[in-house]
Amino acid sequence: MLQTMAASNLVSQTPTTLPTKSHQLSSNPFSVNPILRFKHKPISRSLTSLQARVLRAVLSTPEPKTQNFQHCFTKSEDGFLRCEGVKVEEVMEVAEKRPFYLYSKPQITRNVEAYKEALQGLNSIIGYAIKANNNLKILEHLQKLGCGAVLVSGNELKLALHAGFDPTRCVFNGNGKILEDLVLAAQAGVFVNIDSEFDLENIVAAARIAGKKVNVLLRINPDVDPQVHPYVATGNKNSKFGIRNEKLQWFLDAVKAHPKELKLVGAHCHLGSTITKVDIFRDAAVLMVNYIDEIRHQGFEIDYLNIGGGLGIDYYHTGAVLPTPKDLIDTVRGLVISRNLNLIIEPGRSLIANTCCFVNRVTGVKTNGTKNFIVIDGSMAELIRPSLYGAYQHIELVSPPPPDAETSTFDVVGPVCESADFLGKDRELPTPTKGAGLVVHDAGAYCMSMASTYNLKMRPPEYWIDNDGSVSKIRHGETFDDHLRFFEGL
Ligand code: LLP
């Protein structure tokens, strides 16, 4: 209560200056000492794909229509799931507890490199959307790889600074940014997107409190249908995000009226998430550069186009050809160059989702009516996307089932007291034995960051595997004692 009051009073007080960069925790609670060091074994998947390519080259047969699915988690011929050559089953044996999240650090690097290559020849910022995954160790890694950060709260901003992100490569977004967070943003010197009339007023107030001019972009809602689940569509005309083009003049006049507080540097849009057609980005970029022309025509020297994030990934693991970062950038490259713009992109999912599996143990198998269930220790509390959006995330066992295991259709469910508690529906899987390992793939984005402690299922630990096959913990699992701490002294 006292803390809440103190926070809301912040605006009327002189704000304390924000420390700028490279804050290290005084004592690092995250042990990154490798807990496991496996001999790195080459994955037979890469040999097979290489052999296939050589064979195709020799026979001069065309590449197949589907992509040869390359993933850091691969099942080799012996039936064991490996991550960067390490058996997931072996990690399960040493993990602090289950379920847990397991990442490939090299895959994170590869995903960033793909964007960097795609952006060659353009002035650009890769703003990693922290909401997708806010693990501090992952943020530090992304920052070292040269990413900026995209933020939606004061705490995300503080964490980004803590992880060492350069504030001049960070963007503060959101339709409900509160004044005290905007003051932090103004002090830190990050880009701020104007989302509404009241947001503009608050940014002006924050600039005055911080005594700093804020570099702002106008978040324009281009009304382009991203063809995704309605919960992750953001650029339609009835969306709660951004401003409508018919109000553009009002915003330009308001910015002009506050030359001491605001410097308009660009325009931003974000269409939605899980987008699998790059034409959609192109359509929006065409509209956006037209707005930029109009804004420049009124005397503003703006040179940033921010096209948001939203590129989808192959959740289905069917090898379907999905647009790559290069496809995305190539579709807007000409427009960006034609207007001599700096390009900001805000990827979350396409940088981090495929780097991680959510690793569980099977508690048991049961049948009710016509339904078979695999009950696991993980649940909607740790991974809510299937329950919330009906999202598909691929599921498989980590080790070969017994030879006589019958394959059936199962719902994979958790122990949480909700019928919506499922990780997958109608999955063809071999009947697992009690205690078998089972993973939910592509769990790097919007899984741990959306986890709750419903039913007092404490948030799970996280690990990553490095290039040399070593496994390190990158976040402790929460404990019951952590929970009791919220009540200490009350
Ligand atoms: N920029 C803005 C302004 C955004 O709103 C978002 C995501 C991103 C960038 C990053 O989008 P990405 O590249 O990750 O698609 N919880 C949902 C996703 C919500 C996305 C919200 N905004 C899910 O689990 O699919």
Automatic annotation (TrEMBL):
One of its GO terms (cellular component) is chloroplast. Gene3D superfamilies: Alanine racemase (3.20.20.10), Lyase, Ornithine Decarboxylase, Chain A, domain 1 (2.40.37.10). CDD domains: PLPDE_III_DapDC (cd06828). Its EC number is 4.1.1.20. Keywords: Amino-acid biosynthesis, Decarboxylase, Lyase, Lysine biosynthesis, Pyridoxal phosphate. Residues 101-444 form the Orn/DAP/Arg decarboxylase 2 C-terminal domain. Residues 1-26 are annotated as: Disordered. Residues 107-353 form the Orn/DAP/Arg decarboxylase 2 N-terminal domain. It catalyses: meso-2,6-diaminopimelate + H(+) = L-lysine + CO2. GO terms for biological process: lysine biosynthetic process via diaminopimelate. SUPFAM superfamilies: Alanine racemase C-terminal domain-like, PLP-binding barrel. The keyword Chloroplast does not apply. Belongs to the Orn/Lys/Arg decarboxylase class-II family. LysA subfamily. HAMAP family: LysA (MF_02120). This is diaminopimelate decarboxylase.
